[in-house]
Design brief:
- It is a single chain.
- By secondary structure, the chain is of the alpha/beta class.
- About 30% of the residues lie in helices and about 25% in strands.
- The protein has 19 helices and 34 strands.
- Helix 15 (about 510-525) runs antiparallel to helix 16 and helix 16 packs antiparallel against helix 17.
- It is elongated.
- The termini are far apart.
C-alpha cells in the first residue's frame, strides 16, 4: 500500500497535476468527517504572562451532509518525562488527564464549506488547562458536531505540544545548561528542468510550478524571506542554521532567470513566466546564506546508496560536483566534506565510497547506526564521522517521518502550526527531561519542507525565545574535521545498520541500468571531444549538463517510484540523443554513379557542437564493394570536414550501403545514412580475369573449329577415294590374248592355275 501511494503521488507530480492533501488533522482516524487545521497557537511558548492560550484554525466539511452545532474543547495530558512519552505525544497517543468545557464554534457548516475558529483557554484557574508547573504538555483539540440526521460525534481532532517554561505568575525554571541546537534548512524541490540552456537556446522545464514557489507567498520564497527577516546578519539564532541546498534547484532557477520555455502536454512550447521571480529569489538566497553554513546536497538530491549498489561510482562522484554550482551561483563556499544522505541512512559500502571522495562527516539517523546517542561517532575504524540528527525533532517537524513518503512528498501537507508547536516542545524537552549530556540536537526537517512563511517565522521566534530563556543555544553543526584522525578513544565506533525499508525504496536496479548505459555515452562523448580554440568551450561544459540530467532520474523525489524515475531517465536520454545527433553525415542527394572500379565517394561530416569531436566512419560489410578505413577524423566545432571515401568495386551493378558516424569507442552520433551506388565498371583483377577467360574461350573455340575442318577434309578425301575405285572397275576394257598369255606381265604363282594350263575342253 505504501508503494502504491508513493507511486500515485509521484506520477501526479510528473504529470503536473497538483496534489491535494487527503489527510485530516493529525491522527484524526477514520471517524473524522472534517479537515481540522490549527494555523496558530499564541503564545507558542508560555513563559508567565499571558494567562491564556489562543488556538486559531479552520475547519472544512468534507462530507456530503451539513454539520450542525460544531463545538470544541482542549484536553491536556501529563507532562512528558521520557523519550517514549514524547514520541507518544507527537503521534497523538498520549492519554489526557484534563478536559476543558466544550465551547461553541460554528452553528452550521454546509458540505464542502470552510470556516475559521478560535479557542481561548486559560492556562490555570477555573475551566483551564490547570498547568501549575513547567513542562512540555500534550494538548488535544477535540471537535464535536452533528452530521446530517445523526447523533453528536467527534468530527475532528488535532494534537500538538505546548512548552511551558513558567506558568502565569511563576518565574521561569532555567535548566542547568542550554541544549546546543543546529537546524538544517533544506532548499529542495522536485526535478523540473528537462533540458539546460545552451548558447542560443533557452532551458526547457517540464512545468511552470516552480515560478509560483519563487514568488512572494510561495513556499521557497517564504522559506528564504523568513530567515532574512527573523535570523538575519548578526542574529545569534543565525549561527545555528545551516542551509542544505540542492544544486539542481539552483541551476534550474538560474536558467529561469535567463528566460526559459515550458513544455506543454501536446509537446509544444510556451514561454515561462517566472524569470523575474527567479532572479529576485536568487538575490534573497544570496543574502540569507552570506556568511552562513551551507551544505551542497548531491546533485538533484540523487540516491547515492542506489548508485553505489548499482556500481556507478563515477555518478556518485559526479553528483558531489554540485558543490561547485552552489559556490558559483551563491558566491559562498559550501562545506564540501559534509553529506546529509537521504533519510539519514547508508550502508558501509556506500559510506566507504563517499569517504574516498572526500566526505568526512555524515548526518545520520541513529536508527541507521548502532547507537542511541546524539554524540558524534566514527563509522567503522578510521571511517568518517557520523553526526546523528535528533530523531525526536525530526518526527516533530515531519508528520511523514518514517513513512514511504518521508522523502518524496511535501510535508507537512497542512496543519503547519502543529508541527511548529511539536518542534518547540521537543526542543524544550531536550533542554530539560530529555537532555543528552551536551550533545548537539540537529533538527532535520523534511527535505521538501512545506512550512508556510508564517509558520517558519513562528518557529524561529519560538527558538529565539527558548534561547533568550537559556533553554537552547544555537551552536551550528558540530565541527568534525580531523576527528577521524584522532586516537581510537577519542570517538566511539559505530557500525552502520541500513534499514531494509530504505533499501526497498531505492531507485530500482533496472532503471539504474538504463541510466548507466546512457552515462557511458556521455563519458564517451567527453573523451572524444576537445576544446576548440575558436569556440573556447571546455568539453565538460557540454557533457556535465547531460550527466546532471541523468542524475535527475536518480533523485530522492522518485524513491519507491520507478515509474517517475524511468520517466526522467527517458527525458535525459532524449536530450542526450539530441546532442549526439548534432554530429552527423550530411544527406546524400540521389544515386551515386561510380565510373571506375576504385572511384572515391565524396562525403561530409557536420559538427554543430561547440567542441571539436573525433569520429570514425562505420560502414557494415557489403558484398561486391570494399571501403578503406579512414581512421579518426577530427571535425572542428561548428564546422564540417569533407573527405573522399576510397572504394574498390568487384562487380558492376547497384549497391545499397549503410553508414554512420561514431566515436572511437563506437558510440553512435548522428543517425545512419543509406546511399545508393551504381557501378558500370570492373576492378583490374576482374578485367584481367575476364580478358584471360575471353582469350581462352577464343583459343578453345578456334581449336574446335580447326578440328572440325580437318575432320571434314578427312571425310571428303575418304569419300572421293571410294568413288574413284568403283569407276575404274566398271569402265576398264578386257585384256587381249597376248596380254593374257604373256608371262612377263602376269607371272603365275606356284600352285595357281591359268587358262593355258587347262587342256582343251
Amino acid at each position: 500500500m505504501r508503494c502504491l501511494l508513493a507511486a500515485v503521488v509521484a506520477v501526479l507530480l510528473v504529470s503536473g497535476i497538483p496534489i491535494t492533501a487527503a489527510r485530516t488533522a493529525s491522527a484524526q482516524g477514520d471517524s473524522s468527517t472534517t479537515r481540522l487545521e490549527v494555523t496558530k497557537v499564541t503564545p507558542s511558548v508560555i513563559s508567565g504572562a499571558p494567562g491564556e492560550v489562543t488556538i486559531s484554525g479552520r475547519i472544512t466539511n468534507t462530507t456530503g451532509d451539513t454539520i450542525n452545532g460544531i463545538e470544541a474543547r482542549v484536553q491536556r495530558g501529563y507532562p512528558t518525562q521520557s523519550v517514549p512519552a514524547a514520541q507518544d505525544a507527537l503521534r497523538g497517543n498520549a492519554a489526557t488527564v484534563n478536559e476543558t468545557s466544550f465551547r461553541p464554534m460554528i452553528d452550521t457548516l454546509a458540505p464542502g464549506k470552510q470556516a475559521p475558529f478560535e479557542l481561548r483557554v486559560p492556562v490555570n484557574g477555573p475551566d483551564s488547562l490547570e498547568i501549575t508547573e513547567p513542562g512540555v504538555f500534550p494538548l488535544l483539540v477535540n471537535v464535536n458536531g452533528q452530521p446530517g440526521d445523526g447523533g453528536r460525534a467527534r468530527i475532528g481532532e488535532s494534537h500538538f505540544l505546548l512548552p511551558v517554561l513558567a506558568p502565569p505568575g511563576a518565574p521561569p525554571a532555567k535548566p542547568a545548561q542550554p541544549a546546543p541546537v543546529a537546524m538544517l534548512l533544506p532548499v529542495v524541490d522536485y526535478p523540473r528542468m528537462q533540458q539546460e540552456g545552451t548558447p542560443g537556446q533557452r532551458a526547457v522545464l517540464a512545468d511552470d510550478a516552480l515560478a509560483g514557489s519563487l514568488t512572494p507567498g510561495g513556499r521557497l520564497y517564504d522559506l528564504v524571506q523568513s530567515v532574512v527577516d527573523n535570523a538575519g546578519a548578526g542574529s545569534p539564532l543565525g549561527n545555528g542554521l545551516c542551509f542544505a541546498i540542492d544544486p539542481d534547484l539552483l541551476a534550474t532557477v538560474q536558467a529561469m532567470s535567463r528566460g526559459y520555455q515550458v513544455r506543454q502536454a501536446d509537446g509544444g512550447m510556451r514561454d515561462g513566466t517566472g524569470s523575474a521571480s527567479a532572479q529576485l529569489w536568487l538575490n534573497k538566497l544570496r543574502e540569507a546564506t552570506e556568511g552562513r553554513c551551507v551544505l551542497a546536497l548531491p546533485y538533484a538530491d540523487s540516491d547515492v546508496a542506489a548508485l553505489d549498489h548499482a556500481d556507478l561510482p563515477d555518478l556518485i562522484k559526479g553528483s558531489l560536483d554540485g558543490a561547485g554550482v552552489v559556490q558559483q551561483v551563491l558566491g559562498v563556499e559550501p562545506r564540501r566534506s559534509v553529506l546529509w544522505p537521504i533519510e539519514g541512512a547508508l550502508d558501509e559500502s556506500t559510506a566507504r565510497k563517499l569517504a574516498g571522495f572526500g566526505i568526512d562527516t555524515m548526518l545520520m539517523e541513529p536508527s541507521a547506526m548502532s547507537t542511541d546517542s546524539l554524540a558524534p561517532a566514527r563509522l567503522y575504524e578510521d571511517g568518517p564521522v557520523a553526526v546523528p540528527v535528533d530523531p525526536l525533532l525530526s518526527e516533530a517537524l515531519d508528520p511523514r517521518h518514517g513513512s514511504a513518503l518521508e522523502t518524496t512528498a511535501m510535508s507537512p501537507d497542512g496543519n503547519g502550526a502543529a508541527t511548529v508547536q511539536n518542534a518547540l516542545g521537543a526542543l524544550a524537552f531536550r533542554a530539560t527531561a530529555g537532555a543528552q549530556g551536551g550533545a548537539t540536537s540537529v533538527l532535520a526537517p523534511p527535505r521538501r519542507w512545506n512550512l508556510s512563511g508564517e509558520d517558519l517565522r513562528a518557529l524561529l521566534d519560538g527558538m529565539r525565545g527558548l534561547a533568550d530563556a537559556g533553554y537552547v543555544r544555537p551552536a551550528g553543526l558540530p565541527e568534525t574535521t580531523g576527528q577521524a584522525e584522532q586516537s581510537d578513544s577519542a570517538l566511539p565506533v559505530s557500525r552502520l545498520d541500513y534499514p531494509q525499508e530504505n533499501a526497498a525504496e531505492e531507485i530500482p536496479r533496472p532503471v539504474l541500468d538504463q541510466l548507466a548505459e546512457q552515462n557511458y555515452k556521455v563519458g564517451d562523448l567527453y573523451r572524444s571531444s576537445q576544446k576548440d580554440p575558436a569556440a573556447d568551450l571546455d568539453p565538460a561544459a557540454l557533457t556535465t549538463p547531460l550527466r546532471n540530467g541523468l542524475l535527475r532520474g536518480a533523485s530522492s523525489a522518485w524513491r519507491d517510484n520507478p515509474v517517475a524515475a524511468r520517466h526522467w531517465v527517458r527525458v535525459a536520454t532524449d536530450t542526450l540523443n539530441g546532442v549526439l545527433a548534432r554530429v552527423r553525415l550530411d544527406e546524400f542527394a540521389g544515386k551515386i554513379t561510380l565510373t571506375a572500379s576504385n572511384a572515391p565517394i565524396p562525403m561530409t561530416v557536420t559538427n554543430d557542437l561547440p567542441v571539436t569531436v573525433s569520429v570514425r566512419l562505420r560502414i557494415p560489410a557489403t558484398a561486391g564493394i570494399e571501403t578503406r578505413d579512414l581512421g579518426v577524423i577530427r571535425v572542428p566545432a561548428q564546422g564540417r570536414r569533407h573527405f573522399r571515401l576510397e572504394t574498390e568495386v568487384h562487380r558492376a551493378g547497384q549497391f545499397t550501403v549503410d553508414m554512420d558516424v561514431v566515436t572511437e569507442a563506437g558510440t553512435e552520433l548522428g543517425p545512419a545514412k543509406r546511399i545508393q551506388l551504381q557501378s558500370y565498371t570492373y576492378d583490374p583483377f576482374t578485367v584481367g580475369f575476364t580478358a584471360i577467360a575471353s582469350a581462352l574461350l577464343v583459343i578453345l573455340s578456334a581449336r574446335r573449329i580447326l578440328r572440325r575442318l580437318r575432320a571434314r577434309r578427312s571425310r571428303l578425301a575418304a569419300a572421293n577415294g571410294g568413288q574413284a575405285g568403283e569407276s575404274a572397275a566398271t569402265s576398264a576394257p578386257a585384256p587381249s590374248a597376248s596380254e593374257t598369255t604373256n608371262p612377263r606381265m602376269f607371272p603365275v604363282s606356284p600352285g595357281s592355275t591359268t587358262e593355258s594350263d587347262r587342256g582343251p575342253s
